[in-house]
Design goal:
Radius of gyration: 18 Å
Largest sheet: 4 strands, antiparallel
Strand content: over 45%
Distance between the termini: 36 Å
Shape: elongated
Structural class: mainly beta
Helix content: 10-25%
Number of helices: 1
């Protein structure tokens, strides 16, 4: 039981807000927005995501697919770079049904 609490506690921790930058005159700047907008879809066992990055920084995107059957292997795509004003397509699949799909972002 103690082990389960240790593994669950870090994921329940609140996310840290990005720190604001200081300008030359000492004022604080708001953090710059980051992260491509992604739309995911499932068609039978096939999964896809279209991600558009409207920001000037490159976003490294990964598609994660969790399959419904216990014997079906869950997959994580390799990181794909979405540059400024670029749209990328990611895809994956399960042998049978799909349980969950999500996209992660990295600077």
């Amino acid at each position: 039981m103690a082990l389960a609490l240790v593994t669950v506690a870090p994921s329940a921790a609140p996310r840290a807000e990005p720190s604001a930058r200081a300008t030359a005159d000492g004022r604080r700047e708001a953090p710059r927005p980051f992260g491509a907008e992604c739309r995911t879809g499932v068609a039978g066992p096939d999964v896809f995501a279209y991600c558009h990055n409207p920001y000037p920084e490159t976003d490294r995107i990964r598609l994660h697919v969790e399959c419904d059957r216990w014997w079906d292997i869950d997959t994580d795509s390799r990181p794909v770079e979405a540059g400024p004003a670029q749209t990328v397509r990611l895809s994956g699949r399960c042998w049978k049904e799909v349980r969950a799909v999500w996209v992660t972002h990295q600077k």
